[in-house]
Amino acid sequence: MPAQRHIERHQLPYFLKVFNRITDKPMGSLGNVSRDGLMLISSLPLLLGARFDMRLKIPGKDAPHYIDFSATCQWSREDVTPGTYDSGFALLSAPQDYVDMVDALHRYFSFYPLSTSA
């Protein structure tokens, strides 16, 4: 049985869509992200060990910004929500745009303790 991963992730269900970079067809939505990988929520299970060429379309003022990357499916299992599957991916080489997006999401969704010193 594979070891459980202990990387801190940030939950992002149904907000950012992931597309197949070759066909431009939607693959699913980001469930969570880290600098080294992501979890995809989709309507179909995905092939373990397969490499996928993916694209994120980040909304922008004038046009979407594309982040292209390749990732390998490490695991795929049925979600608790009927008809959906969760699949974990390891990025082969995270482009800087992807790393910047993960860092920006981390800052945006994180809560920091207030300073107790006066």
Count of individual domains: 1
Write down the Rg.
15 Å
Q: What is the name of the CATH topology? A: Thrombin, subunit H
With helices defined by DSSP (H or I, 4 residues minimum), what is the helix count?
1
Strand order of the largest sheet: 2-3-4-7-6-5
Major sheet size, sense and barrel closure? 6 strands, antiparallel, barrel
Which segments are poorly predicted (pLDDT under 50) over 5 or more consecutive residues? none
CATH superfamily: predicted glycosyltransferase like domains
The SSE string, one letter per element, is: EEEEEEEH
Helical coverage, percent range? 10-25%
| Average pLDDT metric | 84
Supply the CATH class.
Mainly Beta
Taken as a percent bin, the fraction of beta residues is 35-45%
CATH architecture: Beta Barrel
Number of strands: 7
The shape, in one word, is globular
Q: Determine the structural class based on helices, strands and strand pairing.
A: mainly beta
Rounded to the nearest angstrom, the distance between the terminal CA atoms is: 51 Å
Domain PilZ: 5-96
Pfam family, one: PilZ
Organism: Pseudomonas cuatrocienegasensis
InterPro entries: PilZ_domain
